[in-house]
Amino acid sequence: MSAFEEAGVAPELISAVDELGWTLPTPIQAEAVPLILGGGDVMAAAETGSGKTGAFALPVLQIVHEALRTRQAARQAGGGGGTAPSAQRSLCVLNAEDRDAVFAISGDGLRCQARSEQAWGGCRGTVGAFSGRVYYEATVSDEGLCRVGWSTQAASLDLGTDKHGFGYGGTGKKSHVRQFEDYGEPYGLNDTVGCLLDSDGGTISYTKNGALLGPAFQLPQHMRGQAFYPAVCLKNAELQVNFGGSPFKHAPPPGYGGLASAPRSTTASWQEAPAGSGGGGGKPLAIILEPARDLAEQTHNNITLFRKHLRDPSIRNELLVGGTAAAAQLRALKEGVDIVVGTPGRVMDFMETGKLPTDQVQFFVLDEADRLLDTGNQEVIMKMFQRFPKGGSGVARLQVLLFSATLHSPEVRALAGKICQNPIIIDLKGKDAVPEAVHHVLVRCDPQEDRSWLQSAPAVHTDAVHALDQTGPNLDTPENWSEAVKRLKQRYLQRVLDAFQMEQCLIFCRTNFDCDNLELFLNSLGGGSGGGFRGKRESGVESRYSCVVLAGARSMDERRAALQAFKDGDVRFLICTDVAARGIDIQGLPYVINMTLPDRSEDYIHRVGRVGRADTMGLAISLVSSVPEKVWFCTQKGYKPWLQPDAHNTRTNEEGGQTTWYDEPQLLQDIEKRLSRPIAALDADLSLPADIAAHVAGGGGGSEVQYGQQRGGGVSKEVAERVAAVRPAVQGLARLEFAAQSSFYELKRKWAATAAHA
């Protein structure tokens, strides 16, 4: 039995990971996979490069595949083995799989209540209609706030708050896209509201205690033919509904019939693609959110690799990210998608426009949750969560999987409290963890001592924050020293690259504009033939200072090409920002350089986590200014003051401008506190400090190693520990296998002898 099989992973998935060279699950995979397969919510944190993607992708794929096989078998059994929906009528009740957590339903599915006094709770029926005229009744059985009506499966359960839902409330208001207008009259305890849907005429109307109230809504033309489901929304109230399975209190108007008795050819079950809606195949069972396009693409590609052996049925996954044409993504959704991986903006756009159905979602995965929150996505995440069905139990209920670099931030814990249900916490990283195989050093950049910033060649490119300030060799002002250190850092970078003869290095900058300027500088040193990387060359690495940029301001195609060029070894240096580089996994990366320290210590951990993976030696070098540095800090989204610096925008934020003063010595103290140790400076000749040099020479185990190589003769500490941990179990299984085979052959021999004597 393989270690992945011991964790409960299906054979088809094991075959896929075997082909990727995965011999053992990583600690986070060994912990998370069985828990997710068991059906619980999971919050997990582990070091970057620890196999987090596999930890959630493998069990999600397995459960999604099992659900698809179950549905396929049910269709074949009910429809004579064909692919058409079964002609058997679905039970028309309130849907326990399509409701808010505060919404309770009786055993017969016809009585409901929501007892929260603060929050609305909503629910839809199990059957909807896309043709004909149908009717259902809702009777208020306990006083409270109610809205009743119709919605598509793309609608929010908070009825009438978006373009897909149409409601009528007890206050005498009709509601659609949060527009509450006078309609009919108020209703309350013991009143019965009739809800009428004319799919062919495109109207929604209501009655109160049998009296017609007139048309409330005219359906837009593009919504004609879509399946509309009964929808109710309550706040501290109770309703009794009747879809026509028993006599109505008030007969529907002529031409209308009970929804439960409507012809099968005019209705759709919530589990089917609505017949008449133009829809195609299956609906997504899993939504996976990533904070950046590159990371979403990386996760999508991993899932494609993992699912390659899953058959009958196969699994379809789709990437939904901005910066790419939406037409192909929309076409894939129409044809049917089982797993969606995307960024919050594009995924939410498809949900709000009804192109991405959410009524069958079983998994909501937030990868890099801390970064998702850093980029202001909490409101979007909550809107998505409200759309997902909350009913079911075990593996049939909505599972929320929250993977983060840290579980200790208040924002992450607050989000988990809202969307997770008794989550199991896996924290293999701890608050201040950093890979042990990473050495941390710094280069102190003091323009008052090192006057090389005054040199005219090679030319440097700064951020123009001091374009209006006087600078020069004889000035002693904060502005002058700030501009000086900007110039000095690029020269120090060149010296560090030469001193270590770096063949591959990740270089972090604060902003997209800083990345652009550093690219210009390296290209001026000979970073690319003709001024930049121009594509793969047969001769290998393009030049001594060849570089590419991975930053949010670049197009998706540019970022993809840049990352591939770096991975393939066509360029030596990848210049990037924090957000763009989040989740990048480059095997054996030896060096990371921080042109400027990040303003949060946890971002430093994320940066240096690009090296030191799988017990590979890595070196993190930070260029630290000894003087305050003035930098751009824009409070206005989309504004680029560096393109036209003026007397107003070069002021600090406190003065109403778009800049701030950066105090790197203080930031360094915060990072050292997080690491629980000081960071040593490189010697004057940029050689390693003596203790680090000795550690590298000894390799931590008696043999010399280099950065980018594994310690311990090529067998990582993590792998060695896992092998030692599973060795007794594997040996025991081997003994059992030998005993079973011996018993089989002994029985076979005895039966053969018995047969011969007979």
UniProtKB/TrEMBL annotation:
**Organism classification:** Eukaryota, Viridiplantae, Chlorophyta, core chlorophytes, Trebouxiophyceae
B30.2/SPRY domain location, by residue?
61-248
Q: Which PANTHER family match?
A: ATP-DEPENDENT RNA HELICASE DBPA, ATP-DEPENDENT RNA HELICASE RHLE-RELATED
GO molecular function terms here? ATP binding; exonuclease activity; nucleic acid binding; RNA helicase activity
Any one GO CC term of the record? cytosol
Could you tell me the keywords of this UniProt record? ATP-binding, Exonuclease, Helicase, Hydrolase, Nuclease, Nucleotide-binding
Name the record gives this protein: DEAD box protein 1
Database matches in SUPFAM superfamilies: Concanavalin A-like lectins/glucanases (SSF49899), P-loop containing nucleoside triphosphate hydrolases (SSF52540)
According to the entry, every stretch annotated as the Helicase C-terminal domain falls at: 492-690
Query: Which residues are in the DEAD-box RNA helicase Q domain?
Result: 2-30
Motif Q motif at which residues? 2-30
- A single Pfam family it belongs to is Helicase_C
The similarity comment for this entry is:
Belongs to the DEAD box helicase family. DDX1 subfamily.
Segments for region (Disordered)? 254-283
Q: Which residues form the Helicase ATP-binding domain?
A: 283-425
